[in-house]
Design goal:
There is one protein chain. The protein is an alpha+beta fold and 287 residues long. The chain contains five helices and eight strands, in the order αααααββββββββ. The strands form three sheets. Strands 2-7-4-5 form a four-stranded antiparallel β-sheet, with no helix packed on it. A hairpin with a 2-residue loop joins strand 4 and strand 5. It is rod-shaped.
């Protein structure tokens, strides 16, 4: 409410009244009574247009002085003060949550700055050493694969495989059979061995203690077939190839026929010995 002077609501006292007051005695006249009544009515009407100090209810468009921006007292806040409290700076980038101390408010159309330290959801490009949960072994989905997942998968995949250098096979390994006459580092299958060695020469009996040499230009196979007889101290049969004992069979009781198939490389030398009536039969294949 604007500042109000007392004269806005009180009419000057008529001169006749002052004369009466100045008199030794005051005598009320009909004219004085009418004037007082008129003034009372006017004063009451004017008072009805005023708001009380306690919990006033204003109408129309009440106005008041606008407080300085940032004022934090019981002073009335005008619309101009409220609008003036709007922030004039851009919002801070997302970070650690904080209550804040600013008394200004953000406008409805404000926009937060882009956080360049975060990767977008679509086609992110990471830097440094990004980490992620490692999927269970065998997972086959769109889940991110960590180095631990890949390493574990490779280890599982190669576990049943043989190394290229000095492999040790188990079971019944197979391989393509090379053409007859092949003389390379290609693996030789049993089919290749039987085909290459063939039956170019016949079996014959060799004497023990005599050194023989493979002059056929290919690997031959010594086929041993003999049976033991009862000898004092037991029996034995031995084959030595290129100075290395590759076969030894011994025992103390009579047995049925024994047999073995021993390879001798081209140019290789061999001999055999025994202590009974056995003979050594040499052939180009094992049967």
């Amino acid at each position: 409410m604007a500042s109000t002077t007392f004269t806005d609501f009180v009419t000057p006292v008529p001169a006749a009244w002052l004369n009466d007051v100045n008199a030794a005695t005051y005598t009320q006249t009909p004219a004085n009574t009418t004037a007082i009544a008129t003034e009372t009515t006017r004063a009451l009407a004017a008072e009805a247009l005023l708001a009380p100090k306690a919990s006033p209810t204003f109408t129309g468009v009440p106005a008041a002085p606008t407080a300085v921006a940032g004022t934090n007292t019981t002073q009335l806040a005008t619309t101009a003060y409220v609008v003036g409290q709007a922030a004039t700076t851009t919002p801070v980038m997302d970070g650690i949550a904080a209550v804040g101390v600013s008394t200004t408010f953000a406008r409805a159309d404000h926009v937060h700055a882009s956080d360049t330290t975060k990767a977008p959801i679509a086609s992110p490009t990471f830097t440094g050493v990004p980490v992620a949960p490692t999927a269970a072994s065998g997972t086959n989905t769109t889940q991110v694969a960590t180095t631990a997942f890949v390493t574990g998968g490779i280890a599982t995949a190669v576990a049943p495989l043989a190394p290229q250098a000095s492999p040790t096979f188990t079971g019944v390994p197979t391989a393509p059979t090379a053409a007859a006459g092949t003389n390379t580092t290609q693996l030789a299958t049993t089919a290749f061995a039987l085909t290459s060695v063939g039956s170019a020469w016949s079996a014959y009996t060799q004497s023990q203690g005599v050194t023989y040499t493979n002059t056929w230009g290919k690997t031959i196979f010594i086929y041993i077939r003999w049976h033991s007889t009862i000898e004092s101290g037991g029996y034995y049969a031995q084959v030595v190839v290129n100075g290395v004992e590759v076969y030894l069979q011994s025992g103390s009781t009579w047995s049925a026929y024994h047999s073995a198939c021993i390879p001798v490389p081209p140019g290789g030398a061999w001999y055999w010995t025994q202590n009974g009536g056995q003979t050594l039969q040499v052939n180009n294949i094992c049967v």
